């Protein structure tokens, strides 16, 4: 319930932030922000190399071995991997021809935005790792405050300062700069938590190589998942202008309201899934899954019904022109509600050593999503993008739950 409350508060704050941006900044600037955010999701999924998932996995694993104090060593080895991957991405980006990127999109100077995002990847990745590290240490409240409140609130303040000083054109810079500040704050707080840890268990050792081999499949999964989350927005930027991107991205954000329940439950139970699975307590694991799915449905249904009834009113709050995304919103929330009962599938596979299987499923889903977006956006605009996304998420979730049942005889729906 604490996680749910903070999630709802975060979604409410994000809603107010989006409302503030769309009513006070031009659609072009909001589109640049949305485009940069999508690029950050994709490149961030690469730079963090799955560490935010693997640190949760290792917390459950170490607890099953009575060696949770060893998590500090895992953390610092993971930071080294993130630093290497972030520097490698900066190098690659400086070797890419700008015209190649710019010629792919219809929007103005996308390469400049992509390159700018790249320089902030390390700070964003460490911030996300720290948030998950708090969760691994059972500091759920701190973790969720930073995940749902602080990172949106800081940007809200920065955007307001830009507005009152007539510095709108720095919107993307302030958005990215917030991750530097949050990285430093979370590092300081995490250092204080590390001082409270006791002696390590010398019988349980996890090498950097082991961390990498656990993390990189999760990294591939996260990258592919973020690609799927961002493909619609990015490809919409190829075929349409930034204002259309802004309208559609707003619909995506509003639709995310329906996933509060799913995300809240997954945040809480992920370490427990890893712990029970490593102890082979499959009957307890099945009970945990069933009760969690009931909570997901209980939390998600009211939001779904509300948006179906008041979709036009909600979108109109962002500006009259944003009502054009009404049909896209209907498509997205319908697909997300279908997958609510399957919302634990990806989390379950990551926490039970099935990362490589999940990666194959997500690669298929990503390719399907790209193909459907290319096919449907030119014909249906933003509605085509929403339909492509909806079809994709239903298909990959269905495949995943079938494989979980075949492997473990566990029902995750």
Q: What does the model show?
A:
The chain is mostly helical and 413 residues long. It has one domain (2-408). Helices cover 82% and strands 0% of the residues. It has 17 helices and no strands. The protein has helices spanning 2-24, 27-47, 51-64, 71-95, 98-104, 110-118, 121-136, 140-164, 171-194, 208-239, 242-255, 260-278, 282-316, 326-338, 345-351, 355-380, 382-408. Helix 7 runs parallel beside helix 9, helix 8 (140-164) packs antiparallel against helix 9 (171-194) and helix 13 (282-316) packs antiparallel against helix 14.
SSE arrangement:
Blueprint: H1 2-24, H2 27-47, H3 51-64, H4 71-95, H5 98-104, H6 110-118, H7 121-136, H8 140-164, H9 171-194, H10 208-239, H11 242-255, H12 260-278, H13 282-316, H14 326-338, H15 345-351, H16 355-380, H17 382-408
Helix pairs in contact: 1-8, 1-11, 1-12, 2-6, 2-7, 2-10, 2-11, 3-4, 3-7, 3-12, 4-7, 7-8, 7-9, 8-9, 10-11, 10-16, 10-17, 11-13, 11-14, 12-13, 13-14, 14-17, 15-17, 16-17
Number of helices, where a helix is a run of at least 4 consecutive DSSP H or I residues: 17
The general outline is globular
**Helix share bin:** over 70%
The figure for the number of domains is 1
Main location: membrane
Transmembrane segments: 37-60, 81-105, 117-137, 149-164, 170-192, 213-231, 251-274, 295-315, 327-345, 357-377, 383-405
Organism: Moheibacter stercoris
Keywords: Cell membrane, Membrane, Transmembrane, Transmembrane helix
């Amino acid at each position: 319930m604490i996680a749910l409350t903070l999630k709802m508060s975060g979604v409410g704050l994000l809603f107010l932030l989006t409302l503030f941006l769309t009513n006070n900044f031009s659609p072009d600037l909001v589109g640049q922000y949305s485009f940069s955010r999508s690029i950050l999701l994709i490149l961030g999924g690469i730079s963090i190399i799955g560490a935010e998932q693997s640190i949760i996995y290792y917390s459950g694993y170490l607890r099953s071995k009575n060696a949770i104090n060893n998590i500090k060593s895992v953390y610092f080895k993971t930071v080294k991997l993130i630093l290497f991957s972030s520097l490698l991405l900066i190098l690659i980006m400086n070797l890419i021809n700008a015209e190649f990127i710019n010629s792919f999109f219809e929007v103005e100077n996308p390469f400049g935005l992509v390159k700018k995002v790249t320089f902030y990847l390390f700070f964003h990745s460490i911030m996300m790792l720290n948030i998950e590290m708090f969760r691994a240490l059972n500091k759920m409240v701190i973790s969720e405050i930073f995940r749902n409140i602080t990172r949106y609130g800081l940007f809200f303040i920065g955007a307001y300062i830009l507005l009152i000083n007539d510095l709108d054109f720095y919107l993307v810079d302030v958005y990215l700069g917030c991750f530097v500040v949050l990285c430093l704050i979370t590092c300081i707080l995490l250092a204080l938590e590390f001082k409270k840890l006791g002696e390590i268990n010398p019988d349980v050792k996890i090498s950097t190589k082991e961390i990498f081999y656990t993390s990189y499949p999760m990294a591939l999964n996260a990258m592919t998942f973020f690609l799927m989350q961002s493909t619609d927005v990015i490809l919409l930027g190829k075929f349409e202008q930034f204002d259309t991107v802004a309208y559609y991205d707003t619909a995506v954000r509003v639709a995310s309201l329906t996933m509060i329940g799913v995300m809240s439950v997954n945040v809480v139970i992920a370490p427990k899934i890893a712990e029970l699975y490593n102890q082979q307590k499959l009957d307890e694991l099945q009970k945990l899954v069933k009760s969690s799915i009931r909570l997901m449905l209980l939390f998600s249904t009211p939001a779904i019904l509300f948006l179906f009834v008041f979709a036009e009113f909600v979108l109109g709050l962002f500006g009259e022109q944003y009502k054009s995304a009404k049909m896209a919103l209907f498509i997205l929330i319908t697909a997300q509600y279908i997958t609510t009962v399957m919302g634990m599938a990806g989390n379950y596979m990551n926490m039970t050593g099935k990362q490589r299987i999940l990666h194959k499923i997500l690669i298929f889903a990503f390719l399907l999503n790209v193909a459907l977006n290319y096919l449907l956006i030119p014909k249906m605009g933003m509605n085509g993008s929403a339909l492509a996304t909806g079809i994709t998420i239903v298909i990959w979730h269905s495949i995943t739950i079938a494989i979980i049942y075949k492997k473990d005889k566990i029902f995750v729906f």
